[in-house]
């Protein structure tokens, strides 16, 4: 009778096959051994300069970098889920969507929601990371790992990584022979491959100097290599072997193909000269961030196809009221760096052609980290995900 009364439990089937009996469903907690066995630590946070943002395909932000170090200690990879606010982080942690909140959450808020405040934090501000109350093992592991000096140390490390000091290169002169009109030893290569990019070869030369100062052996902490500072992922996408990435001709050839690809994303911009500036910004800061700035320009009644209008909103992506706007899909951006990158290339390109420089992209802004003042807007939404043991 017991056998007849029991309802047969149907197996859970996913596109990858049937889920095993050790399935981790929402509201269950991963122990440290579960996390290690699964090979992945999932953290919830908010986008921002102090928390998490994408920088040339690499996660940055003090909270992210700290969490990455903890994941490395466990020997697992780190996956970050960006939420729209603290309420969503708490809700998703309680639902079992992630292992921890890697964000300075007020301890009172953690206690109110039956979370354990643990790991990285600032006692004077009453903030700390948090895990679910049923995950004391993870909380103990975080507490034994974190030391008060870690936050200051990671901020120093990040500051170094974002500075020019982290790029190893020999600085050559921007002109090899000004009187003879020779910019560099690589002029023949720029002339050969610039048609692939549909650019003036002198614009490629100006960009190359900004990237590597004409040093074919240049490399950055993030892994960018060679004359045009091509990232490993981009090299793979373009079919450029890492063994060839420092070869001047192959590096410039790959960069020209990449520029051509980026150019295609902006084919709806009528002016070729304007289009070049969008491509430069994407080369430096990422196409998706530029797309976010274009969306902000459109929303605010400006032209998404005019560089000066979009550059203003690239700078604005350093401000929370803008990188949290609903039309922004990729969060915080180091916009001042990207606008400065474009302006420096524009200035050098004008120098190479012997024409006057047109001035900064945004009126009243001459580079550096300061940005114009902006009016507040509303935060954006984030996607929700679940995970299973397969």
Give your account of this protein's structure.
The chain is α/β, with parallel strands linked by helices and 390 residues long. The chain folds into two domains: 9-161, Periplasmic binding protein-like II (D-Maltodextrin-Binding Protein, domain 2, 3-Layer(aba) Sandwich), CATH 3.40.190; 167-353, Lysozyme, CATH 1.10.530.10. 43% of the residues lie in helices and 12% in strands. It is built from 16 helices and nine strands. Strands 6-3-7-9-8 form a five-stranded mixed beta sheet, with helices on both faces. Helix 3 packs across helix 7 (150-161) and helix 12 (272-285) packs across helix 13 (287-299). It comes from Xylanibacter rarus. This is Tail length tape measure protein. Residues 366-390 are annotated as: Disordered. Residues 190-302 form the Transglycosylase SLT domain. Residues 380-390 have a biased composition (Basic residues).
Task: For this entry, give a set of tags.
Tail length tape measure protein, elongated, 390 residues, Lysozyme, 5-stranded mixed β-sheet, two-stranded antiparallel sheet, disordered C terminus, alpha/beta
Largest sheet, spatial ordering of strands: 6-3-7-9-8
Provide the low-confidence segments as ranges: 1-9, 14-27, 375-390
Could you please say which CATH topology of the largest domain applies here?
Answer: Lysozyme
Global outline: elongated
Mean pLDDT: 87
Helix fraction? Answer: 40-55%
How large is the radius of gyration?
Answer: 24 Å
**Percent of residues in β-strands:** 5-15%
> From the coordinates shown, what is the CATH architecture of the largest domain?
Orthogonal Bundle
Class by SSE composition: alpha/beta
List SSEs in N-to-C order. Answer: HEEHEEEHEHEHEEHHHHHHHHHHH
